[in-house]
Amino acid sequence: MTQRIDGVGAAPGLVIGQAVLWRKEQPRVKSRKVENPNREVSRLEEEVLRAKEQLTRLRESARERMGDEEAAIFDAHLAFLDDPAYVGEMKSRILDRRQNAEVICRDVTEEMSQMLASLPDEYMQARADDIRDVGHRLLLLLSGQKPFDPSLIQPGSVVIADELAPSDTAQFPPGIAAMVTARGSKTAHAAIMARTLGIPAVLGLGEDLKRIREGETIIVDGENGSITLHPDPDTLDQSRERIRRKRELWESALKKADQKAVTSDGRRIQVFANIGSPQDVDAALKNGAEGIGLFRTEFLYLENDHWPTEEEQFQAYRQVLESFGDRPVVIRTLDIGGDKDLPYADLPKEENPFLGHRAIRYCLSHPEIFKTQLRALLRAGVHGNLWIMFPMVGNLSEIQQAKSLLEEARKELENQGLHIARNPKTGIMVEVPGAAVIADVLAKEVDFMSIGTNDLTQYTLAADRGNERVASLYDAAHPSVLRLVRQTCDAARREGILVGMCGELAGDPRMTEVLVGLGLDELSMSAGTIPEVKERIRRVQTDEARKLADEVLVQSTPEKVRYLAEKSR
Ligand code: PEP
Ligand code: MG
Q: Is 3.20.20.60 the CATH classification of the domain at 261-567?
């Protein structure tokens, strides 16, 4: 009998495929004494070399298929194999204890991963998973076991796994149809990889994963976050029809990606891209981005082991601004704190980091760090159409202080005789519910506002955006979040300023009509969804969209909102 199981939709797309169980081989470790510990150390060294070769190959294949950022995960793995506290510790224990390398490797890996997991710093906690992954590889090599060979997976298969590490997804052969896991949330590494690879993913199925049998046909709906087991012929036909319609829409969308998005009654909605580094510019342009609606500048800070200098920042901003010519590029000032730690910033531990000293709050109390960024922005602004955006604003005073530091930066540069952007637009992210509530007050002080639904949702619904245990409570389509969106749009319209959205909701094609109806002028999203959202906008009729928006705002649950949004398509 047809059986639907709900999980977390982590990457969109609908497919029908055959289940392949990803068998993570468990190393069989037997303890034994060794006669010649020096020979055992050499054996360990040989396998470490072999592990390094494998990881280097994986890094290159990840770089080719997913870009530098994902490939960097393997640098962390390789670094462990050069770390004296890890491999060095194994060698000295083999010599001291005259025990075989497998046992020592298992114990040292376990101890180090436990130690890392117990640290307060989230970055270090994530390294605990990395070291387990490296240790697992090394153990399989030492015990002469063959790891599961992913290259044998047939195209069109749906990979079923308890959990997928980055080193697993990097080994996916081309043509994998989808992935389904027991653990993981929308922000898990596996989810990010799936979105980058364009593979639909449903994660967090828990114990229900065990109901899936090798080789059976399953339907994976990454958009709705569900899988269907034992589909009957009718269900299969309906899914095939949905897939066909989606493909048609997608093909026509792609052909028109470069054209503007105008509703059927002539309202223009601007569709922009979110980027995380200058490397993302190509994909944004190819998919028809009319500008950048959110350039997250954190990458410059997270990639470095020092505060990035004014010059380093200037080069990165300039590159993006030049690529977009006179089209707007919204660059968001530093948004650290919360879940984004910077080892060299020495951020104090906080009980509630998401409610703590993050983003604009941090920048205003570190004016020199902030002004370095503002100076780089003003200088780079000469090379394009710069809009500066402040994150996590909660009150008027923060905007005034940020603008006064911008003014100081401008004067400093002018005194140095440097050429700078004349009047860049300044705006704020609306991602704190309080800011949405007083959007009418804040709108008087800025040129534009952009709604960050990722944070706005977690704060409005009190559901941590990265916590899979409350994932079912976290939905940006909740009427309470949408009411704040409407309120912000109304305030912007009254003040005659532009209002956009750059949270994930903006890139959800199922909600496009509702968003147009709520009054947004601009939507910014990851590049891959731009063509489809543009195509959806072209099918919207503004009056009907407004009626739909009015109707969703009085619903009691996000499910009802989504049902109405879906029905009207
Ligand atoms: C948001 O909060 O919606 C947003 C776009 O910012 P980030 O995801 O970087 O917190
Ligand atoms: Mg945010």
A: yes
